[in-house]
Structure formats: structure tokens, C-alpha cells
Specification:
- The complex is a heterodimer of chains A (285) and B (232).
- Helix content of chain A is 74%, strand content 4%.
- With 285 residues, chain A is mainly α.
- In chain A, helix 6 packs across helix 7, helix 10 runs parallel beside helix 12 and helix 11 packs across helix 12.
- Chain A is globular.
- The relative contact order of chain A is 0.21.
- With 232 residues, chain B is an alpha/beta fold.
- Chain B contains ten helices and ten strands.
- In chain B, the strands form two sheets. Chain B has a six-stranded mixed β-sheet with strand order 6-7-8-3-9-10, with helices on both faces.
- The longest helix of chain B has 14 residues.
- The chains are: A mainly alpha (285), B alpha/beta (232).
- The interface between A and B is medium-sized, with 20 and 29 residues.
- Bound molecules: adenosine-5'-triphosphate and magnesium ion.
- Magnesium ion binds next to helix 1 of chain B.
- Adenosine-5'-triphosphate binds next to helix 1 of chain B.
């Protein structure tokens, strides 16, 4: 039981950060990036290929995160342009359609060219005992990196002027423009950051379980669940939602079996929408 | 400093404001008065870039700003306080003010001036803007605009939702901005109030200027008295 909860927390931290990357883009411009998981996988595969060709782990990981950021930036300056010219429902729908297309392209390319590639960063060392449960070093390192990234992001959004500018566009775009903020450049920043987060999560995830080329869509769906439960556009909400869903996930695979876990997660998300339509924290955090 | 020339503005390419000429000189307080639906907000929004300029031009400090992006107009020194305020509801008073100064760092003298004009805000620096009363939010909206150290402050009905006694205070505060070299263009339906502090004014009805003159001329004008000052 304790072991399952600890495993759930490790997983949940990653779910949380994964959700953050998607939710900031949604909160920002009212667009959903369904190529998000595919971009994460593309980053992971870049790391894997780079390491196989002899690059040491740290620069390979940096290259992977850069790949995520670059892909996302590219998306923002190309197919997102017509999306931002639309408003409201049209904007969301168009973003969904176009990014699903991109997801298929990335996914199709990877499955075609590198069908059996998978990133698996095994971190050596003896297990460390936490609350009497032996935890693998990989899990602990992944969690530490994720916590650092999460705290870093929250500090960025709370403390820095750029972070405040981002939140201002999320809360009231007209108000932000009137304050001299250019929403287009803020969106560019957020999209790039989102891609870097996708890359980072793919890397930390591969420290506990392999990330194969086929993982894209399930990562996107996970990120969507976290976003919905956490409240659209809320960083704190996404982190908390990730932890909750991670623990739910671990407990349900522990007690019920992993085949039904996805359904349990969906039910948990559906319940949140019914009970708190704007998510755990609402929209303004 | 601001010259609106033969401006047409409206929605979906249909003008509701037609052929409007307006001028604001340095350090001047200029009022636009007119009844509901006259086109005051439409006019101000198009000057600030929130609505397209369909025809005519907007000249600011010698250059055209017509159809420039809102954020550029803001950075050029025009601060607009819309009637809907557009504050950042989930952020504190302090954060709203900081963003008002964007992209510059908040100026401490300016902050001090703001808390002098609106002591209420000084007591509530950590309160979320969305939880403040309507009147406090209005003060914050004006204060946020002032943080940009604008040369021209444009206000759309700054006393909506404010008790009459407080509305007088608001206009007294606005009047002091003259001493700080800030020009003000203000749309208002509370005609006696705004004419008590304005230098000049325009009467806008059905989308076009019906009358213009000094505040005193407008106050003494029989048509203005009949329509807006409740004089029979
Ligand atoms: N978003 C909009 N779309 C279409 N027409 C609009 C829109 N907003 C305002 N109008 C129309 O434009 C005209 C002028 O409206 P405007 O808001 O500029 O008047 P106003 O003088 O500011 O009035 P008030 O004192 O009530 O604020 C009105 O006929 C109004 O119906
Ligand atoms: Mg109006």
C-alpha cells in the first residue's frame, strides 16, 4: 500500500508536469495542442538516437529538450497562425484538427523510420529506502528533477515580470494589450516552454519506464486529463491533479488491475468536471 | 498631441461613428459627452487600437497611430481605461500595478503618487483585484493606467458603478493629473461633473460631433443645458 502510494506520487509528479505543459498553452490562447504527446515522444527518441550514436547522456538530454522546444516553436509560427485569427469555439476546434494532423505526421514518421526505438534511461545504484519502501534511484532522480522544474515554473509565473505578463494574458488578453503586452510574443514564449516541458517529462519518464515511439497519444490523453482536473490554465492545479491521478492510477492498478486503470482515471476526471467545472483551483492560478 | 481626423469607426466594417474630428493638446482635460449609444466608447476604442479605424486618421505626437496594434499604442504613451476595466482578476493590486508599467520596471515615485491619489489601494496591495468592490476596481484600473507614465490618459466613463460622493472624488483626482503633465480624454454621461474639471468638450450624438467648445461654453449652451444638465 505505502509502496503503491509512493509509486503513484512518483508517477503523479510526472503527470503533473506533463499537464502543466498543455494547460499553459490552453490557458494562454484557448488552443489545444494534441500533438503534445507526439512532441514529447519525438524528444525522447532524439535522446535515444543521440545516445546510441555515442553522445553522453547529459548533452543528449539537452538536445532532446531543445527538440521539444523547437518543434513547439515551429508549430506556433506555422499552423497556429490561422488558428489565432479565429475566436472562441472555432479557434479550439481548428487547433484540435490541425494538431491531430501534426500528431499523426510525427507519430507516423517515427513508427515508419524507427519502429522499435524507445528511450530508457537506466540510472544505476542501489535502491534507497523511503518510509521502509525501497525506491529506485531513477524514480527519485526523476521526482527531484520534476519537483525542481515545477517549483521553477511556479516561481517564474509568480515572481518574474515575464511570468506575470504570461498570467495577465491568460486572465484578460485585452487588459494585457492595454498594458503594452504583445500577446503574440507571450504565446511564442509559452509554446516554446511547453515543448521544452514535453521533452523534459519524456526524459524523466524514461528513468522509470521505457518511452516507445507509440506512446504519443496516450501521453496527450494523460495531459488532457490532468489539465481538465487541474483547471484550465492553472499550473498549481495541474501539479496537484497530476499527483492525485498518479496515486489513483497506482492504487487502482494495485487493487483492481492495470487494465481498468485508464477507465478509473477517466471516471475521476469526469467526477471532477461534474463537481468542480473549473477544476481544482479554477482558472486564475 | 492627439488629433482625430474625420474618423469613421464601428463594428464589422459598419461605421457607427462618422467623420469625427477631435483634438487634445498637451496637459489638457477634454470631455466627450453624449447619451447612451452615442458612440463614445466606439470612438475611444478605435483611437486605442481595440477597434479598426475604418476611415480618417489618428495622429499622435505628429505620427499616425491608426490601426496600429494596441500594445504599441500603449507603449507610445497612451493609456486607456475601458468602461469594462479589464483588470487581471486573479492578481493582486500590486501585480496589476506592476503590469501597468510593463515593459518598464514600476517607477517608485509614480507608485507613491498613486497611493496618494487612491489611499484605498495602498491599504489593499495584496488583495486580488477580482475580489474588490466596483469602486475600488475602478480606482485600480485608473491607477494601473497611470503606472505606464502615460502622456495621454483616456478614460471611458470612469464613474460607472461609483457612488455619487465618490465620483466627485474621482474627478478631483483626475483634475490633479494636469499638474503632472498628463493630458486626459474622458467620455462621460455625468455632464456637470465632467464639465467641472474639463478644459474643453465635445458633444457626440448618433455617432457624430454636434457641438464643441470650452467647458464654460458648453455649460452655458441651451442645448446642453436642456439635454444633459436637466435645465428646462
Ligand atoms: N460590439 C458591438 N457590435 C456591434 N455594435 C455595437 C457594439 N458595441 C456597440 N455597438 C453599437 O454602437 C453604437 C455606439 O455604442 P457605444 O458603446 O460606442 O456608445 P456609448 O456612447 O459608449 O454608450 P454608453 O454611454 O451607453 O456606454 C450603439 O448603437 C451600439 O449598439
Ligand atoms: Mg460606452
Amino acid at each position: 500500500m505505502t509502496a503503491a502510494i509512493l509509486d503513484g506520487l512518483v508517477l503523479g509528479l510526472q503527470f503533473g508536469l506533463l499537464g502543466v505543459g498543455l494547460t499553459i498553452v490552453y490557458g494562454m490562447g484557448g488552443v489545444l495542442n494534441l500533438a503534445y504527446g507526439a512532441m514529447a515522444v519525438a524528444s525522447a527518441i532524439v535522446v535515444s538516437v543521440a545516445m546510441r550514436s555515442g553522445l553522453p547522456a547529459v548533452p543528449a538530454v539537452a538536445l532532446g529538450i531543445l527538440t521539444g522546444a523547437a518543434l513547439s516553436l515551429l508549430l506556433n509560427v506555422t499552423i497556429m497562425r490561422p488558428v489565432y485569427r479565429r475566436r472562441g469555439d472555432q479557434r479550439v476546434l481548428l487547433s484540435i484538427l490541425l494538431t491531430i494532423g501534426v500528431a499523426f505526421i510525427i507519430n507516423g514518421y517515427l513508427v515508419w523510420k524507427l519502429p522499435i526505438e524507445a528511450l530508457s534511461l537506466s540510472i544505476g545504484g542501489d535502491a534507497i529506502s523511503i518510509l521502509g519502501v525501497p525506491m529506485r534511484v531513477g524514480s527519485l532522480l526523476a521526482s527531484a528533477i520534476t519537483i525542481l522544474a515545477g517549483v521553477g515554473l511556479i516561481l517564474f509565473f509568480r515572481r518574474t515580470t515575464a511570468g506575470k505578463a504570461v498570467r495577465s494574458v491568460i486572465q484578460d488578453e485585452v487588459g494585457a494589450r492595454l498594458c503594452g503586452i504583445n500577446p503574440a510574443s507571450v504565446r511564442m514564449l509559452i509554446f516554446t516552454l511547453s515543448g521544452a516541458i514535453a521533452g523534459l517529462v519524456a526524459v524523466t519518464r524514461s528513468m522509470t519506464s521505457p518511452v516507445p515511439v507509440s506512446e504519443g497519444f496516450s501521453l496527450t490523453i494523460l495531459a488532457l486529463l490532468v489539465t481538465v482536473v487541474g483547471g484550465l490554465g492553472s499550473v498549481k492545479g495541474a501539479m496537484l491533479a497530476g499527483l492525485i491521478l498518479g496515486v489513483v492510477n497506482a492504487l487502482s492498478s494495485f487493487y483492481i488491475g492495470s487494465y481498468i486503470t485508464t477507465i478509473v482515471l477517466l471516471v475521476a476526471a469526469a467526477l471532477t468536471i461534474l463537481l468542480r467545472p473549473s477544476g481544482l483551483f479554477g482558472e486564475y492560478t | 498631441m492627439l488629433e482625430v481626423r474625420a474618423l469613421d469607426a464601428g463594428y464589422n466594417n459598419k461605421a457607427v461613428v462618422n467623420d469625427v474630428d477631435i483634438q487634445v493638446d498637451d496637459g489638457e482635460i477634454v470631455a466627450i459627452i453624449g447619451s447612451n449609444g452615442a458612440g463614445k466608447s466606439t470612438l475611444l476604442r478605435s483611437v486605442c487600437g481595440l477597434l479598426p479605424v475604418l476611415d480618417g486618421d489618428v495622429i499622435y505626437e505628429g505620427g499616425s497611430i491608426a490601426n496600429r496594434p494596441v500594445y504599441q499604442i500603449s507603449r507610445a504613451g497612451i493609456a486607456f481605461v475601458p468602461a469594462e476595466r479589464h483588470l487581471f482578476p486573479g492578481m493582486t493590486v500590486d501585480e496589476n500595478l506592476t503590469l501597468g508599467a510593463y515593459p518598464k520596471r514600476p517607477d517608485s515615485d509614480r507608485r507613491a503618487l498613486i497611493f496618494e491619489l487612491f489611499p484605498r489601494l495602498g491599504e489593499r496591495k495584496r488583495q486580488a483585484a477580482g475580489t474588490m468592490s466596483g469602486g475600488e476596481q475602478q480606482m485600480l484600473a485608473v491607477a494601473r493606467a497611470l503606472m505606464a507614465i502615460p502622456k495621454l490618459l483616456i478614460l471611458d466613463e470612469p464613474t460607472t458603478g461609483i457612488a455619487p460622493s465618490l465620483a466627485v472624488n474621482t474627478y478631483q483626482s483626475i483634475a490633479t493629473l494636469r499638474d503632472h503633465g498628463i493630458a486626459v480624454l474622458v467620455a462621460e454621461q455625468q455632464v456637470p461633473l465632467v464639465l467641472s474639471i474639463a478644459d474643453r468638450g465635445y458633444v457626440l450624438e448618433n455617432g457624430s460631433i454636434q457641438l464643441e467648445g470650452s467647458a464654460a461654453e458648453l455649460r452655458d449652451n441651451p442645448m446642453v443645458q436642456k439635454a444633459y444638465l436637466g435645465v428646462a
